[in-house]
C-alpha cells in the first residue's frame, strides 16, 4: 500500500475551546466532488487553541515517509514579519521520549486557494501515533479549510495502477447483473447459488455477494444452469470455492463485477470474464511539464531557527497503458468501453496520492492499424501524466534576513548597507 487515508475530514475535529476556535464539517468547498473538509475559524483570542483528532487505535505509519493535506486559508502565511505562520500541524506518538516533538508550520502561499501541504516524516517517530492537532500560533484571526489527510510512500507505477483499479472497479455496474437478490438460501460450504431466471450470467463471471452473515464474498462462476420452468438460474463455483457465510434468500444480493487486472508479461494470465486488462506500454519523461526549481516544505523550529526541507523539483513523466476489455457479449464490452472515456476524461483526471493527474486517450500504435483482422481484440490506449521524486529531502535553515552592503573601491571597509528582515 502506497498511501492510507489518515482522516477524510468528514467528521469535525475536536476543538480545545469552541468559544474561540470553531471547527465544523464542510461538504461543499473542497474541490474534489463528494469529499469533505474541516472548516476552522479562529478568533483573536484563539492563541494556543487547537483542533484535535484522536484515532480509535494508535496508527503505525512507519511504512510511509510523508504526510499530505490540503488547506485553503483567508490569510497568507510565509514566515515573514507581515505574514507569520499562524497554524501548526503536529502529532504525538505513544513512544515519544521527553522533549521529542513532531511539529510543523503550515504555509499559505495564496489566499482562498487550495494548496497541498507535504511534510516529510521519514526521520520522525511514527509507529504509534495517538493524536493529530492543528494549533493556533498567533492572535491573528483566520478562516481556513483543511481536507484529506494522507500518509504516503510514493511508488510511481504502483500508485498509478492502484488509482486506476480503484476508480474503474468502483464505477462499473453492469445492466441486469447488479444487486440481484438470491432466490434460495445458500449455506456455508455450498458451491452454488440460485437467482431468478437471468440469461445475462456467463461462465467466467466474478461475483460479489453482499448481505451474507460473513460479510461480502467473491466467487467465480464455472457453470450456469438456467431452468425456465422453475424460473431460476443456478450459478456454480469450483469445488474449493465455497460459500463462507449464510446467504439468506431475499436478503443477500449478487453482482457481476468487472475486475481490473494489471498484466505482467511474460506471465500467462487467466482473467475473469468480463474484465479490464491493463498493459504498460511506455514510460517517458515529459520535458514540457518538468520544471526546474527547488521544492521547500516541512517548515519547523529547530531551537531558535526555522528550518525547511529542500530538494529538486520532481521530474514529469508520461505513462502509456493499453486497456483491453474482455466480455462474453458485445453489449457488455461496449458498455464497459463507454465507461472508460466517461471516467478517465481530461476534465476529471486521475487522483493519485491526493493529486489529480491528467489523462488523455491515444490513437492505436501504427503497426496495429495494418494488422487488425477479425477475432483480434481492440484495445483502448490511454496516457497519464505524473511526477517522480528523484532526490531525498535535505533540511536547511530558512533565510531570516538578507544584507546588502556596498563600499568604494578605494575604501573597501567604509561600508554602507541595507538589511532586509524576512
Structure in words:
β14 (206-210) and β15 (217-220) form a beta hairpin. The protein has 3 domains: 3-153, Jelly Rolls (Sandwich); 159-171 and 262-394, 2-Layer Sandwich (STM4215-like), CATH 3.30.2000; 180-257, Elongation Factor Tu (Ef-tu), domain 3, CATH 2.40.30. It is built from 3 helices and 30 strands. 8% of the residues lie in helices and 41% in strands. The strands form 8 sheets. Strands 1, 3, 4, 6, 9 and 11 form a 6-stranded antiparallel β-sheet that branches. The protein has a 5-stranded antiparallel β-sheet with strand order 2-5-10-7-8, with no helix packed on it. The chain has 422 residues and is mainly beta.
- CATH topology term of the largest domain: Jelly Rolls
Number of domains: 3
Which strand-content bin applies to the residues?
Answer: 35-45%
CATH class of the largest domain: Mainly Beta
User: Helical percent range?
Assistant: under 10%
Question: What would CATH call the homologous superfamily of the largest domain?
Answer: Galactose-binding domain-like
Helix tally equals 3
The structure class reads: mainly beta
Overall pLDDT score: 91
Poorly predicted runs of 5 or more residues: none
The coarse overall form would be elongated
Layout: helices, strands, pairs:
Layout: E1 3-7, E2 14-15, E3 21-26, E4 37-42, E5 50-53, E6 66-73, E7 87-93, E8 103-105, E9 115-120, E10 129-136, E11 142-152, H1 156-169, E12 180-181, E13 192-196, E14 206-210, E15 217-220, E16 223-227, E17 232-236, E18 253-257, E19 260-262, E20 275-285, E21 294-302, E22 305-312, E23 315-326, H2 330-343, E24 350-352, E25 355-357, E26 359-362, H3 366-371, E27 380-388, E28 394-397, E29 401-406, E30 416-421
